[in-house]
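I am still learning, so would you mind making up any protein sequence you like and the C-alpha cells describing how it folds?
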Amino acid sequence: MPIHDQGYRRYGGDKARGKAWLVILTTGVRSMLGNRRWIVLMVASWIQFLVRAVLFYIAANFPQAASIAPTAATFRDFFDWQNIFVFIMTVWLGSALIAEDRRANALQIYLSKPLTRAEYIFGKMAILATFLLLITWVPAILLLVVQIVFAGSFAFVRANAYLFPAITVFSLIEVVTASASMLALSSLSTNSRFVGILYTALIFFSNALYGVMRAVTGSSAVSWISFGNNIAQIGDLIFRVPLRYQTPWPISLLMIVVLIALSAFILERRVRGVEIVA
C-alpha cells in the first residue's frame, strides 16, 4: 500500500484577492440573523423610526401640528437617541469579534494564505459596521424618504439638500470610530466579557473625567476628553446645528482621527498569525 506524504504543501488554488473578507462578513451576518436576541435588539432599535414616522405623518396632514414638523435638528436628534443602541451593539457584538479567535488560537488559521491580515481585519470590522449602519444610516435615510412621501413634495429635501450627505458622513464617522476602537480592544484579550467591560469603562470614565474637569474649569472647552463628546461635536457641525460644547471642532475631529489611528496601530501589532515551531 502506497504511503502518501501528508506534510505541508503550498496552496495551489486560485487566490481571490480583495474578496476573501466577504466570506467573513457573510458568515458573521448570517450567524447574527439566526440569533433571536439580535432580532429583538434590531426591532427595538427601529422603534424610534416608527415613532418619528408617525409624527411626520401627523405634521404633514394636520396644520395645527406644525410645531412637530421635521427640521435638520430632528435628524440630528435621531442619532442622539440611537446612541444607546449603537453602544449596546458595539459592546455585545464587537467585543467577541477578535477575542474569540484569539481564545481559540484561530488567528494562524485565518491568516494563512490566501486570506491576508488586512482582509481579516476588514471582514471583522464589516460585520460590526453592517449592523451599526442598520440602526443609524438606514433608518435615518428612510426617514427622509418617509418625509417626502407624507409631504407629497420635495420642498423639505430641496431646502435641506445637505441632509443626505450629512447623514451619510456622520454615520460613517460614528460607525468607523466605534468599530475600530472596539476591534482594537478585542484584539488585546481572549475574554470577550472583559473587552466589553473595558470598552464600557473607558466610555464612562472619559465622560466622568469630562464632568470633573468642566466643574473645575467652569467651561465645556475640555469636552475633547470624552470619546462621545467628540462624536457629538462633529455631528452638530455636520448637521449645521449649534455646537453643544465650547471645544473648537478641529480639536474634536483631531481626537477622532487620533483614536482611529491608535486603533489601527494596535490592530497592526496584535493581529498576527502565530508560527508553530515543531
